[in-house]
Amino acid sequence: MTPDNLYNRFTALNPANTAPLLRMPDGRILTYADADAAAARFAHVLVSLGVNRGDRVAVQVEKSAEAILLYLGCLRAGAVFLPLNTAYTPVELAYFLADAAPAVAVVSPKAQAGLESVAREAGVKALETLGVDGDGTLMEKVAKAPASFATLALDTINELAAILYTSGTTGRSKGAMLSHENLASNAWVLRDFWRFKPEDVLLHALPIYHTHGLFVAMNVILIAGASTIFLPRFDADAVFAHLPHATTMMGVPTFYVRMADDQRLTREATSHMRLFVSGSAPLLAETHRAFRDKTGHAILERYGMTETNMNTSNPYDGDRVAGTVGPTLPGVTLRIVNPETGRQLPSGEIGMIEVKGPNVFRGYWQNPEKTKAEFRPDGFFITGDLGKVDWKGYVTIVGRGKDLVITGGLNVYPKEVESEIDALPGVIESAVIGVPHKDFGEGVTAIVVLTKGATLDEAAVLKALEARLAKFKQPKRVLFVDDLPRNAMGKVQKAALRETYARLFG
Ligand code: AMP
């Protein structure tokens, strides 16, 4: 691939294209031509604020059309877009600003006052604001800037387009450096694989500080010349109100759990839809089945991560197998290895998932040691996920490597135990964790969520598992909770559970 700015790959972004890009819930429509002009304005403002090629632009703002335009402006100016989770506190933000040393930081108007000293200490040249209603200091400057801009040509294929900080459930989160090439290659592959066309309308209820909402959803739309219904967040009422105007939806499993529970989810309400995609956390086979029973749609599950973009996807045509994330996407190579030796394992065996391809990031920002530790000498990235590949090439994720339970020296894969528990009548879901245990090192512990009115107790769960799982895999304790702790992307926070139950076995 010749080096080209990702912006230029979004060929629909041009002054002559009056097709819609963003359809806002209030009826406002932003066309591709509007976005092209606005991105030029943003790029001019960034340059005038002192942003040079390769400089970071840190952005912690609520989801808005303007935030997308700022992303596009960064691409045009050759700046590195660095979105930050809106949930981060000023203390956390201080770490990110010090680590990333951005030239410019853009924050919500209400957050500005509290961040001035933090930004100054981090050497930020300009602290600007951007609100959800087109307000803020950045927008005042944007309004006065010219509507055309010569998009920066890249010198090399590896120039950075974005840095996304990983969610960092253990230790400090790290900045994943993503090149224009990383993002372009994945957007292309996904557009073709999922058959996105200019006529498509994507229902977008995801956050845009994360790879899912920003790159999987928006880059695919932009490269296809399609449009999105751009909702501020997932809200079941809004989703069902806008669903009739959409053709496709991308979501995290929690969206689909909530939709499947809603009586408005019917065959008629979804008959015009062509695709529902799920990712970022495991979709329970039960949710897949419930959704299919109610709508006839088999949710398409895919697998990826901040560092790699998307690696695998269930097929568009062909079997979408519940509980799997499908075969490897075109251009991506995936292998399963023994985590200790790095030796490749035969089909069907569980091991560490490693991937290689144009989608895989350039390394961790200012962290060459960590980067070196996570790549094999032959260029494969060690994902940290455990999984297996069946004879048809379908990949199943068994869990994060660090969630593996080692009890009495034996490995227990949480998913295997969770699947058995989840299959019991009255169980909604479960999380299996390892908790410090003086005899076994770790004791297998199951945290279970029951349906309303279910009478299952610890003894009944243990009894049911007796005949199904080897003794060492059977939980030493089964505890019941109303909900499992989850982050914004729907991932169960096992580290938090391990902390809560750290002293369970004394
Ligand atoms: P993030 O970098 O926040 O996107 O998180 C990436 C991680 O989410 C992966 O390494 C997996 O552990 C998990 N993940 C993403 N998609 C799936 C999926 N379809 N099934 C199971 N886990 C997933």
- Topology, number of strands: 23
Q: Looking across the biggest beta sheet, what order are the strands in?
A: 2-1-10-9-11-12-13-14
| C-alpha geometry | globular
Task: Report the structural category.
Answer: alpha/beta
Which ranges are low-confidence, i.e. pLDDT below 50, for 5 or more consecutive residues? none
Q: Number of helical runs? A: 16
Q: Give the helix level as a range of percent.
A: 25-40%
The Cα radius of gyration reads 23 Å
Ligands = adenosine monophosphate
Walk me through what this model shows.
This protein is an alpha/beta fold. 30% of the residues lie in helices and 24% in strands. It contains 16 helices and 23 strands. The strands form 6 sheets. An 8-stranded mixed beta sheet has the order 2-1-10-9-11-12-13-14. A 4-stranded parallel beta sheet has the order 4-3-5-6, sandwiched between helices. The longest helix is centred in the first third of the chain and has 17 residues, at 32-48. It is globular, with a radius of gyration of 23 Å. It starts with 5 loop residues before the first helix and ends in a 6-residue tail after the last helix. 49% of the residues are buried. The mean pLDDT is 95. The structure holds adenosine monophosphate. Adenosine monophosphate is lined by residues 166-167, 211, 279-282, 301, 303, 305-306, 325, 383, 385, 397, 400, 489. Residues 166-167, 211, 279-282, 301, 303, 305-306, 325, 383, 385, 397, 400, 489 line the site of adenosine monophosphate.
